Predict the structure.
Amino acid sequence: MAWDFETEPEFQVKLDWADAFVREEVEPLDLVWGGLEFTPPDDTLRKIIDPLKDEVRRQKLWATHLGPDLGGEGYGQLRLSLLNEILGRSSWAPIIFGCQAPDTGNAEIIAHYGTPEQKDRYLRPLLEGELFSCYSMTEPHAGADPTMFQTRAVKDGDEWVINGQKFFSSNARTAAFLIVMVVTNPDVSPYNGMSMFLVPTDTPGINIVRDIGLGGEHLGEGSHALIHYEDVRVPAEALLGGEGQAFAIAQTRLGGGRIHHAMRTIGLATQALDMMCERALSRETQGSILADKQFVQGYIADSYAQLTQFRLFVLYTAWSIDKYNDYRRVRKDIATVKVLMPGGTARHRAASAAGARCAGRQQRDAVPQDDPRRERSRSRRWADRGAQGHCGAAGPARLPAERRPLADSAPAEEGRGGADQVRGVPRARSGEPVSPSTDHV
């Protein structure tokens, strides 16, 4: 019987190195260049980050979610989860380690479905960190229901013409290209009538109307764009995968992206818990330190219990993905992970313990108002569908198959069997439901 909670000694050495490296070399970048993570670096910044990336490569921790043929190590989801717990503490760390969202998911689907020409043009520079990408999927009117999408692509000779609107398209202003999900055949089921296209952001007709701020961000300061596609012409070879394959591609991408969000949230929530403990030990009031107050002790205990439960469930889900190589088989656990996301609760407890340090900051965090950690834990609960939507996926999936609601199953594409596997990463089946909310995966 194999049931082990230990990490292999060889990989633990790498995790220990990553922990020290992020704390000493990467976290300071958040203070000096916070908010520039997805901006193409100038010569000054490149002199700082390129040597850090080279050191990560020497340690064989670069782009660990991808196989060796694509420049990664193919460590699998469980090891990636352990690493992301460390990287989640810093907004710059995923960039330095080559595993930043949304580029990780975008790289995976181009690796799976892209043509050799598409891989040369988009995948190689994306993996090298030379450019950034954007996943443009959600629409203003549709919310978490992609079957309501209206953005269309119509064939015109050897080109496709795209018209419509997309919402919450993360990093669109600094991206070199977009992956756009559109309706190509409105006469069939949405599960078989949508396609994806690779579209350079300088293509005529792409109008980035504005960026949407989240939470405490001011209007225009966010990184999630409203985009109008107005007669955007792309060649036939811009089609990613086959026509009508968008749902299969999206589920391949979002299944991994959702668990990656959870992995990074563990690191962010752990950081909030550590800050709360530091405050409890350093702040004295009414004759004793906060750590002696029973209410604060309860805060710490509740946060620790919640975080430990969440961490173990994330690790179990990552282990299941590695074991079965089938996101559909594990999708109820992936949905449950998103429902349990604890980052906001831990942050609010830390803010309450901080007291006056948060005055005038809407009790969002125990750190300065412009610190990016304030919103990262909030947005990760919204990314790829809200918690209520995931409850609707996790609940029915737990029921016996013959008793599940009909809405839980979408029509599968005729002639396709179980999930394919490409380079060790599970590929979803065409026709499988996918329910994103925002696109920063």
Remarks:
- The longest helix spans residues 246-282.
- The chain has three domains: 9-100, 133-244, 247-401+408-426.
- The chain has twelve helices and twelve strands.
